[in-house]
Amino acid sequence: MMRKVNSYQRFMNTRALANCRYQPTCYEHAANFYTHALLIVPAFVGMTLLHVLSDNSWERITAWVYGVGLCGLFVVSTVFHIITWKKSHMRSVEQCFHMCDRVVIYVFIAASYTPWLNLRELGPLAAHMRWFVWLMAAAGTIYVFIYHERYKLVELAFYLTMGFFPASVVTSMSNTDGLHELAYGGLIYCLGVFFFKSDGVIPFAHAIWHVFVALAAAVHYYAIWKYLYKTPSAESLLHSL
């Protein structure tokens, strides 16, 4: 049993104290970096595809907002993890990117809802969610810059509230196509939160969380592509060639 515990110590440090940041091992740093770095190019390709499929300027703007949120999530996460992996002596830079890594999650959540709020018919009250979701992202950003790493459970509650509250509007739409995929993606995110809070308990917990984020984002992207943007017909593709 002791030998088994020692073998885990190569891949996982002890759990961080309250209000302190967990320090990954070099193996965990590498896993944290690659699990998001490898998704940057697919995210840009996905954003470009939605632009190509857009029929009007409103769809193009929506694709841009969603795509920037998607790409930004993976780019900022990758930059932050490579800075911490390389043990940069510029602590202020590392702290800045750690805060940006937290802020971009709020932006990503708002951007993920934007296609559904922009491209589906909404009632007069539900239409306010288009800007309210960004107001919540702004509030989360302010919280990060004031209380960064001070109240971790409060920050987690912020993420979950922002993730579920706009869903009440989306699920009330008359057109329910794609809601099953939205629910599946949300469930994957929720399951991943267990690993998000398991640094120092489960080896590579944060990298596993990254995988859950990638899977959930892929499910949501598929729903947006399938139900909100038109796939060009084979005939139109042949003419374009």
Automatic annotation (TrEMBL):
Location of this chain's protein in the cell: Endomembrane system
Source organism per UniProt: Austrofundulus limnaeus
Transmembrane regions listed in the UniProt entry: 31-52, 64-83, 103-119, 131-147, 156-173, 208-228
Residues that bind Zn(2+): H81, H206, H210
InterPro entries for this protein: AdipoR/HlyIII-related (IPR004254), Hy-lIII (IPR005744)
Topology term for the membrane: Multi-pass membrane protein
Domain of life: Eukaryota
Family: Belongs to the ADIPOR family.
Keywords: Membrane, Metal-binding, Transmembrane, Transmembrane helix, Zinc
GO MF term list: metal ion binding; pore-forming activity
Protein's name in the database: Monocyte to macrophage differentiation factor
GO-annotated cellular components: endomembrane system; membrane
Keyword Phosphoprotein in annotation: no
Pfam families from the UniProt entry: HlyIII
PANTHER family: ADIPOR/PROGESTIN RECEPTOR-RELATED, MONOCYTE TO MACROPHAGE DIFFERENTIATION FACTOR
Record lineage: Eukaryota, Metazoa, Chordata, Craniata, Vertebrata
